[in-house]
Amino acid sequence: MVNKFVFLPPQTDLFQQWIPRLLDSAPSWKIVAPETQEQAAKELKDADAAFGTMNPELIAAAPNLRWLQAPAAAPAAGYYFDELIAHPTKVTNFREIYNDHISVQILGYIINFTKHFNVYRDKQKERKYEALETPHHDIFLPESTVLIVGVGGIGSETARLCKAIGMRVLGIDGRREDKPEWVDDMFSPDQLDDQLPHADFVVLTIPHTPSTEGLFDSTKFVLMKNSAIFINIGRGMTTKLHDLNNALRSGQIGGAGLDVYEIEPLPEDHPLWDAPNTILTPHTAALGGANLDERRYEIVVENFRNFSDQKPLRNEVDKANWF
Questions:
Q1: Which residue of 93, 101, 160, 244 is most buried, as measured by CB atoms within 10 A?
Q2: Residues 169 and 255 reside in one and the same domain
Q3: Reduced to 3 states, what is the DSSP secondary structure of residue 204?
Q4: Could you give the CA distance from residue 154 to residue 131 in angstroms, rounded to a whole number?
């Protein structure tokens, strides 16, 4: 039996490079790469699977679709629209491929907020040989506590790195029933408020879902230590930037490291740009090395085989909860 797979537009050189490799690994497939939405709608009429971003018109044109590969680990807001959620197709994503890249950046933030390399770099430019005053060097990492909100692949690897330098690691997760080796204590999402006051670092790796949208607002920041550092490297829509800015400027929390934002790109006139003790990076945590495309390919080709063999698909998504 031949299965049909559609690479949805827009097309990229990467798709063209994948097609012969996929056909070599899974010869029982027919693969097409339409260049326009109109062509895609025609190809989807008898398609079994697809890669990319749908819309209501395309999903309506795909009555037989049984697998859709999302183009990201956590696609942009709106990817899981009502018609896609209601459709019987299964959706898979690219979670797990960024675990090492992103956890290293989180650790980089944590170290920077205790050693203040960014501040000393500014002093170096000014040729100033002077140490920062209290409380800049008051946090000693082996005696500190990190609360990781979202202990999936990225959160687990972050826990391993933090534990390696002696930190106490607490985890919050709504899916895991087990406690990873590197986590000292695990808690459910309804226990988040109780754990926030214990943390020197609060790290968000959670995706944007109906339940996490706007989760961190003024009600959460007021529970944190005045010295605590807030780090968001999951999805920007989980954090209210207005409330975060107020918490930073009022001294309610001690600092923030952000790679993702409620508004992207962050507007040039946004007050967070010069908020105190804040490090902002432009959604770059997953960058580094040339292996990510190969990791994506490995997930797709594995699911080609799983689909053909009627086995469970890797990284299947709960569509109603977007992750």
A1: 244
A2: yes
A3: strand
A4: 34
Strand segments (E) across the chain: 3-7, 29-32, 49-51, 67-69, 90-92, 145-149, 168-172, 185-187, 201-204, 229-232, 255-258, 278-280
| Count of the separate structural domains present in the chain | 2
Query: Taking CA 309 as the corner, what is the angle to CA 306 and CA 310, rounded to the nearest 5 degrees?
Result: 80
In the chain, % helix, strand, coil (3-state, to 5) comes to 40, 15, 45
Whether 114 maps to a domain, the answer reads: yes
**Which of 135, 46, 47, 122 is closest to 279 using CA atoms?**
122
The single-letter code of the amino acid at 322 is W
Return the DSSP state at 216.
B
Instruction: Name the nearest CA neighbour of 320 among 151, 94, 84.
Output: 84
Q: Both tokens of residue 96?
A: 């797990």
Structure tokens at 301: 């080709």
The per-residue pLDDT for range 243-281, each reduced to its tens digit, is 999 999 999 999 999 999 999 999 999 999 999 999 999
Residues catalogued as catalytic: 235, 264, 283
The CATH number assigned to the domain holding 39 equals 3.40.50.720
Nearest one of 204, 143, 216 to 172, comparing CA atoms: 204
Same domain, 111 and 62: no
How far is residue 123 from each of residues 32, 158, 277, measured CA to CA in Å?
56, 30, 15
Residues 308 and 208 in one domain: no
